[in-house]
Structure formats: C-alpha cells, structure tokens
Specification:
Helix content of chain A: 25-40%
GO molecular function (chains A, B): phosphomethylpyrimidine synthase activity
Shape of chain A: globular
Family (chains A, B): Belongs to the ThiC family.
Keywords (chains A, B): 4Fe-4S, Iron, Iron-sulfur, Lyase, Metal-binding, S-adenosyl-L-methionine, Thiamine biosynthesis, Zinc
Number of helices of chain A: 21
Number of strands of chain A: 15
Protein name (chains A, B): Phosphomethylpyrimidine synthase
Largest interface: A-B, 146 and 145 residues
Radius of gyration of chain A: 25 Å
Largest sheet of chain A: 8 strands, parallel, barrel
Strand content of chain A: 5-15%
Structural class of chain A: alpha/beta
Organism (chains A, B): Methylocapsa polymorpha
Strand order of the largest sheet of chain A: 8-9-10-11-12-13-14-15
Oligomer: homodimer
C-alpha cells in the first residue's frame, strides 16, 4: 500500500521545523571520536554584548537543524547504527508479525499504514552483553555513554574553578554532581544503578540522553491519541513540538485503534527516548476487560513494542493483591490507569499480580532489547488527602524489591512517583525512594501541591516538580493545563513542557549544577543592558517573550530602547542604576575599599537611631 | 464639573459584577455583634454529594453580591463608619487642597474628575489611640480585629479535633497557628508586631483583612497606569477584577497624569486595602528628577495620600548612602524603582537618605491615619546572580532597625522582600527577616527561582512564592506573565492572581493551616464522584475549568459522564476503582482487619523474591 493513497488525516505530512529565533544547531565532537556528534543549541548575542554565544542543552533533534533533510516516511538518520553494528551480542531476526489486534482491529479503510522506514528488529543473544547496565558493570564505556557525557557538559571544557564554586554554592542533599561529566563517570553511575540511558537497540535514530540524580534534571511529555479523539499526524507533530520546547523524553500513551502503526511513525521519527505503558495495549487486545488479561498477552505486547524500539516501559508490577485493600478508604482510590487495571485483575481472580509473579520473565525480555524499566506507581495518591499513605509506600517498598531483581537480570531501572503531595510531604517521598530503591533514578508526575486549581495544574504541579527536582528527582513528567479536564492540544503541550523546563532548571540551579546558572546570568546581563532581542532569544520561549513585549511597545525602535513599558523612561530603575553605575564604580575605586568600609560601618552598628 | 460631561474613556462606567458560577455571597455575624457582617463565599454542591456547601475566603467585596447596589460615583458602603465614629481619638478636618502637581499638571481637557464620593478626611489627635497597633497594645479589641478573626475561620466554629489534627500534620517552621482564630488572638498578634490590619481611618469602605504569619497567606496584585499607557476606567476594573480572582490587597503603582484622581476612584470603590509607593508621585512633582526630591515634597505626598485613604505605603527608608557602593558590582544593579531613585538622590547630594534620617517624622504621619508601613526592599536582587548579597542583607538589617522605631511610634509594619532567589537560598531570607525584624510580617515579590523564562515569570516566581509562603511569608506580591516585558492586561492580572492563590494555598496546606485542606478534599471527592460541575465550581477558576473540559467533550451530558476525555470510558482509573470500591470495602469488612493484615504481611517481608 502506498502511503500517498491514504487520506491526509491519517498520515503525517509535515512537522514544525527550523531553529528557534537567534539559535543555531551545532555539533560537539568529543576528542578522538569524530564519529560521535553531540547536538547543542547556540544562541547568538548582539555584538554590543561582547560575549560569546550561549550554548544550551538541545533535545529538539534534527528538526531544528537547517541542514537536516526531514522525510517522515524515511525516519530520522540512524546515528546509532554503526555503534550497534559493532556489538557482538546483537542479532537481527525476522520479528513478530503484526496482527489485527495490534491496531485495535481497525478496518482497512481507517488503517494507518506502517511507517515505511521500518527495519527487521535486533535482539540480544542469550548471555551476551546488551544493556547499558551490563556494559557499565563490565567496565565498558559505550558510545552512548560518551555521547551523554559531552551532552551534559553543554560544551564546557574549561573553567574548573568556576564549576567548583557553583557546586559549593548549591545544596544537593547528598547528590554527587561532578564539575565536569566524563564518560567514565557516566559508566560508573550506570553501573551503580544511579542513572539510565534509555536506548532500545531497535531505536537507532536516538540521540542518547541520561536520567539520574547527578545529571541535569530531565522532563518527560506525554502524548497519545485516546479512544475519544486525535489522529496520527497530530501525535507525530505533538512529539516534535514537545521536543522543540524542551522535552527530553516522550511517552506515547495512545489507546484505541491504530496504536501499533502510530507508534511506528513516532519512534522512527523520534530523536528522544519513547516510553509506553504496555498494559494499555494489552487491555485493548482483550476488548478492554481487565479480567481477561493474561501474562501471555502482556508478554506478546512487550515483545511487539520492544521490537519497534520503545525505550522504556512503565510496568505496574508493584501493585500487589495485598495492597489493594489498603486503598479502600482513600479519598480518590486508585488513579493510575495501570494500577486500577491490575487491581481489578487481582481482585477478580483473587490472585497475586502476574506482573509481580512473573517479573523475572519480564526482565528477560527487557534485557534482550535494552528496554529500561520505569517501575510504575500504580497506587500513587490522586489527591492531597491520600498523599504518603500506607498504600503508596507499601508499593514503593515493593518497587525497591523489584529494582534489585531487575539489576540482577542486567536491566536498567527507574522508579515512578507521585502524584498529589502537599509541599511538606514531598521530601519524604524522595528520601524514601532513594532508600528503598538504592538510588535508582526517580521519575515523578508533578507532584501537584494542591487540588483546588483545575485548569492550572501545570502550575500546582510545577511547584512540586521544582522542589522534588531539587531534592534529587531525576526526571519530571509534565502536567498540562488540561490535566483532569481534557486532552492537551498543541498549546497545552508547549505550556506544560515550558513549565517543566522551568521546574527542572530551578532544581538544577538549587542543586548547584555547574552549568545551570550560565544561562540565567546571560539573561540578566541582557536585561540590564536593555538588549531586548538577546533577552527574548535566551529565554525558554523567545516567541512569547517578543509577543508580550510588542503588545505594549510594538515598534522596532523600542527593541533598543533603554526602558520598557512597565515603568516608562523616567521610572526605569535599570536605567537609573546604569546611569549611576559609572559613578558608583568610580566612588568605590576612589575611596579604595569604600564598599568594604561601608559594610564594616554598618556592621559595627552605624545606626542613627536606637 | 459634572462627571457626565467627561469623555467615557476617562471615567469608569461599570465593572465586572455578579457571583462566580455556583457561588453565593453570605455574611457571617460574630456572636453578639450583629453590626459586623463578615463576607464569605459559599459554593453549593450537587445534591447527590450529600455534603454541605463549601465556604471559602472571599476578598471580592460587594461586586460579587447580587444584593449589592454598585454605583462607582457613590463608592462602596462605608461599613467602618459607625466603628470610626465611636473612636474618641479621631477628628475630621478640612484636609489638604488638591494642587495641579497632584495630577501631574494635566490640562483641563484631559483631567479625570475626582470621585464624587469623596468626604473630608479624618486624622488622629495627638496622644490619642489611632492605630490598630496602639489599640492592641492597650489591650483593646477593635471591630476590625473581630472582623478578621471571623474571616480567618472561614465560618468554622466546631470540629476542634479535626483542626488540631490538621495542625499536627503540617510543618510550620515555628509559626503559632491556632486551631481557631479569636479576636483576642488577633489582638495579641498585632500587639506583638507579628500581624497588621492595614486600615487607614480614611478608608471606611474597607472590609478588614489581616497579614501575618499565623494567618492565611495573602496575595497582593499590582495595578496602575504608567507614563506609557492605560486609563482610569481600566484601572478601576483591574482592581475589581484582581479582587474577583482572589487578590487580598491591591497596590496602585500609577505614575504620570491624573494619579491623584485615579486613586480617588480606586479607594472609594475598593473593599480591600490599597497600597502605594508615595515616592513615585513625589518624583512626578519634581519633573521626574530624583535629585530635586526633598523631604518636604515627600511629606506633602504622604499626607495627600493618607487623607485619601491609602492603607499602606511602601517606603524605601532602608536604602542608605553607605549601601549604594555595595551594589556596584552586581549583575543587575538596583532594580527597585524606589531604591534606584533614593540611591540617585543619596549619591547626587552625597548625603544620607532623607527617608532614613527623618523616619520618625514619617512615623508620625503614618500613625495619625493608621497607614501601615511596608518597608521597601530597594536593594532587592534583580537576578539569581545577585541573590542574598551583602547589599540586600545590609538593607534588611536596616529595615529591622526601622521596624522597632515604627513600633515605638505606634505604627503597624510589614517588611518587603525579594525578588530573584534560587530555591536553596529562599529559606535563609525568611529566617533572616524573622530574626532582624522581630517577626514583623514579611511581604515578598515572588521570589523568581530562575531568570530564563521571560513570559512565564508568574510560574518561575510562583514556585518561590509557594515555598516562602510555607516558610512563613505573610503576603505574596503577584508577578504576571508580562513581568520584565510589558504592562499586564486583564488576562495577565487574572493569571497572576490565580497563580499566586495557588502558591498561597499550597503554603497554607504545608503549614497545616486547619482550614486549608477542606477545599482540596471537596474537589477531590467531586473528582472521584464525577461531579464535574462541582469540580469546576470548587476550583479557583470555574470558567476556565469548564471551558477546558468542553473543548474535548462539549455536550451537557458529558458533565455527568463517569469518565473524561483523557482516558475515555474504558481506561478511566477512577471508574475502575469506583467499580472496585464496594468489593474492596466488602473484603476489608469481611476479612476483618485485612488491610492491617496485608500491611503486616508486607512489613514482615512477604516478598516473593530475594
């Protein structure tokens, strides 16, 4: 079937491309490895600034590279292919046949065609090294590790003293953030289970990234059609759009028809790790009745998705039969879809969860493709009232148990967390997770710090996300303004991602990450110098900043004006201070040490009254 | 001059009125005081909920009361008039004549007429008790204290046990929040300087509110025209609009023409305390040249505004000559307008600030009208880079010194704070403020926790505001999405206020305020029961919540649907759990203590593996 024959709505035709204003894509090549090209975004500044361009982390993929040729039917360039080709432990095989139930038994007239970029899958041979965890434990540094090490440094290579000062100025609550990230540091963190590189061997298009407490805080964006609405073109665009604004990974939470083929299009065109919740698709295969689920159907779904190249799976193996009654008197019961599905199964059969009982078999599949575990928090609180209760913590303890099993099996693991938690109960979540799960990376949804603001839950949760990112959470799953109310559209995805980039960055700053404050300082200098264009371009969303400025002062001349509309020219404190600055500096120079003397005077009680 | 003769744009014709969806205004009358009517908002729930209506704090004034007759030319009802009439220490006098410079020498064709509701001003007699602080110190409970005590309880009168459990569950960092607020508690907190009731004796229209660490966290919204744009009608509407969405006080930061008369219209129609920064108007009177400022002009402006009824003044008396050189090497210098004006004056004259030197005279004026001090932080950091530096803290120490002088003079005092502060440096601000200023209420702008998101600074600062509110900050000054970029419009004001209501409420929850979680729990129960209308109406912004829901599922029938568009009917975890609930409860009942047994089993190491 030719994809040109299909109606437009079913097939993605194009996506948002091109750099952000003032930015260009550059590639950093680690010393001695010309075959590894690590993307960064460089923001040029006005010549008057007399400052080098600012380099920032860039998760947006080739879509923002003017040189890249984007063809969704071909998929992205397979940059990991040469690396994977060299690995002895991998083999290519025919793979599982796609079955009608994989696409929800959709009729031929509504079938989304598979992405033509598909290839035969690889899997790991028994006993061979496949996962990043296995390589790391064996003392081997992979190309993925070299890639992420360079990526985390944002192109920094010198200025050790400054980096150390930044670290000393932060409060990381016992994290071990280095001044510079080396491949060996990455390897060691992965070997200790403190970080993961979600990188399925069937996702060669991936630009590797790392999730761990001692690295930059990451952000996940959820996309996915639902039984109620949305199309494949929309979903691929949502993925590209989420990455454009700074998502580091994307979860495809699609349900309903065509999900196998939609996933194809997403993965073949995604430079970022893709996560899924396989139980959703397994449920579709049994007509939506949780009671009919079997391990065999679940297992088949894992293999189906692993062959496609999904990088991490949320698996709710911590929802045990004995946990279910702990939720009986909750205000909001079980709010995780996966959790409620498994609870229903356990109760209906009055049996222990098959995810828990056959966890070792699940591990074997995950290992064979290097799909990372995201151990799901099926009993996370759905309201402030249920935060930190026995059900939540009992599950977390089980997740700790499962973490060790997964590691023993050679798998990479992260742990999902709440949910809805008031501010004073957030830290205990982080501490308990670190303890129970031996510092495996924590990946939380929010948490929302209050329940009273439907329509604004990106903000209620952005507060909690910033705090838990500071405390040590490695990745923050975004929440959009539509949470609890509807499906996020394009604007909601952007708002959610930017809110969470703020939270992640606020966390990095507070931890004292040595690269974090460079961008803040560049914005502040631009602000103080009235370099408006630089201020816009250095921000997370240059388009909105420019638009807001132009609403009050639209003229181009105002972009160089030494005042803004807030105060007008007479009242501009920055202008007054700038006018003062020469004078103040001169005084400080002339009356050698006057600043110090002033301080001394004041400290010695230079008070007029009292 | 008849106001009907003026062009429409200059005079406010009407403002947004009517209750929020599902809500009605009620008045609580404290026992034995039928003359005191404390407004509350009551949100009705669907009969199926079988729950009483939820009462929430209501700062919106008579505008949301269907019974109230609103006539902007007449001003609001003067509810404090009988209370003030009974106070022996007050006298009515002719007051200062309005001068052309008060309205920025505006020509007659562009002059906004004064509000016809104006009356002759009152002032306190020498030696008599005038301020809430003086009454409190004398052991006298005023009507204002009775009013705020009832207001803070949100109509709660019983359920002591629950209130105490809430308190015990929170973390208040040494605050002394009571289970119920009594007038005597209010009096005591004011007498100790730990709380203020900003209530100028010339603002009889005021519905009193209290600002202090042991009360609900409050929110201020800034409005004000600027030299560049906006009109009086817009400003009055912005004030009403900000209160509608939950602002507790409003600062009028107008500059330029007509500011005296605009202020008239605002105060006569404001049920909330109005704050100003008098140095702005003083500067207008000397053609915008800080060097020409004199104490006499400043003093005249204080009296002018005190007679109009401004409830609190920001006064930057902590910017001393010796502090200015401390800012010389900052990234963003001085970013407070008031601070930069005073710094310029000090340097130009090479003299100590007249605000500092003649602070006792300022106190005498403040006391005579019971205008509260908001001691301005003229040296607050304007960037993460400048946070918690010597300049900032030197000023804070001076503010502590001035606090004690103001108290000795009988004045009410709060202290302004930063600004831009990364998360790990927020707590030290709160701790230092409590120490230096003997627990006088703290009133902070944000703080912004990162500088990289122009266009989203309501969020960067909402994070910091929630945290400092939790740590003990009494009032949070909002930041809108337009911060650093332009003048906020109506939508920005609403977004800013709601973001800050979230921050304030998140702070109340974390402190364990006994009334806070009632609303969260009501939302959560509505959510779990699929009472969509109740969920919308109980939220901070029912209109937006409903709109977001309707974007995906517009039909009226979907408002009673037992699922939402996020997951669709099959995947709804809440629905699955609800279906399970009976079963789970039955099991828990039948197998007496099964929940406990499960927990025990798990705790004793009921593990399958390991």
């Amino acid at each position: 079937m030719n994809i040109q024959d299909k109606p437009n709505a079913l097939v993605p035709q194009s996506v948002t491309c091109g750099p952000l204003p003032g930015s260009k894509k550059i590639y950093h090549r680690p010393e001695g490895r010309p075959d590894i090209a690590v993307p960064l975004r460089e923001i040029a500044l006005d010549p008057s600034a007399n400052e080098p361009p600012v380099r920032v982390y860039d998760a947006s993929g080739p879509y923002t590279d003017l040189e890249a040729r984007i063809d969704l039917t071909q998929g992205l360039a397979r940059i990991r292919e040469p690396w994977l080709n060299r690995r002895q432990g991998l083999e290519t095989y025919a793979g599982r046949m796609v079955r009608p139930e994989d696409n929800g038994f959709v009729g031929p007239d509504r079938l989304v065609p598979p992405c033509p970029a598909n290839r035969s899958p690889r899997k790991g041979r028994d006993g061979a090294r496949v996962t990043q965890y296995e390589f790391a434990r064996a003392g081997i540094i992979t190309e993925e590790m070299i890639f992420v090490a360079a990526r985390e440094n944002l192109g920094r290579e010198t200025m050790l003293e400054e980096a150390e000062a930044r670290l000393a100025d932060g409060e990381s609550f016992g994290a071990s953030i280095p001044a510079f990230v080396t491949p060996e540091f990455v390897r060691d963190e992965i070997a200790r289970g403190r970080a993961i590189i979600p990188a399925n061997i069937n996702h060669p298009e991936l630009e590797p990234m790392i999730i761990g407490r001692n690295f930059l805080v990451k952000v996940n964006a959820n996309i996915g059609n639902s039984a109620v609405t949305s199309s494949v073109a929309e979903e691929v665009e949502k993925m590209v759009w989420a990455l454009r604004w700074g998502a580091d990974t994307v979860m495809d939470l699609s349900t309903g028809r065509n999900i196998h083929n939609i996933r194809d299009w997403i993965i073949r065109n995604s430079p970022a790790p893709i996560g899924t919740v396989p139980i959703y698709q397994a449920l579709e295969k049994v007509d939506g009745d949780p009671v009919k689920l079997t391990f065999e159907i679940f297992r088949d779904t894992l293999i189906e998705q692993a062959e496609q190249g999904v990088d991490y799976f949320t698996i709710h193996a911590g929802v045990r039969l004995a946990h279910v009654p702990l939720t009986a008197r909750r205000t909001t019961g079980i709010v995780s879809r996966g959790g409620s599905i498994m609870a229903r199964w356990c109760l209906a059969h009055h049996k222990e969860s098959f995810l828990y009982e056959r966890f070792d078999e699940i591990c074997d599949i995950m290992r064979a493709y290097d799909v990372s575990f995201s151990l799901g928090d099926g009993l996370r609180p759905g309201s402030i009232a249920d935060a930190n209760d026995r059900a939540q913590f009992a599950e977390l303890e089980t997740l700790g148990e499962l973490t060790k099993i997964a590691w023993a099996k050679g798998c990479q693991v992260m742990i999902e967390g709440p949910g809805h938690v008031p501010m004073h109960k957030i830290k205990i979540n982080m501490e308990k997770q670190l303890k129970e799960c031996d510092e495996a990376p924590f990946y939380t949804l929010g948490p929302l710090t209050t329940d009273i603001a439907p329509g604004y839950d990106h903000i209620t949760s952005g507060i909690g996300a910033a705090m838990i990112g500071w405390f040590g959470c490695a990745m923050l799953c975004y929440v959009t303004p539509k949470e609890h109310l509807g499906l996020p559209d394009r604007d909601d995805v952007k708002t959610g991602v930017i809110t969470y980039r703020i939270a992640a960055h606020a966390g990095d700053l507070a931890k004292g990450h040595p690269a974090a404050q460079i961008r803040d300082d560049a914005v502040s200098r631009a602000r103080f110098d009235f370099r408006w264009q630089d201020q816009f371009n250095l921000g997370l969303d240059p388009d909105t900043a420019r638009l807001f400025h132009d609403e009050t002062l639209p003229k181009e001349a105002h972009k160089t004006a030494h005042f803004c509309s807030m105060c007008g020219p007479q009242f501009c404190s920055m202008k007054i201070t700038q006018d003062l600055r020469e004078e103040v500096l001169a005084i400080a120079e002339r009356e050698k040490g006057m600043a110090e003397k002033s301080a001394e005077f004041l400290e010695k009680g230079g008070k007029l009254y009292l």
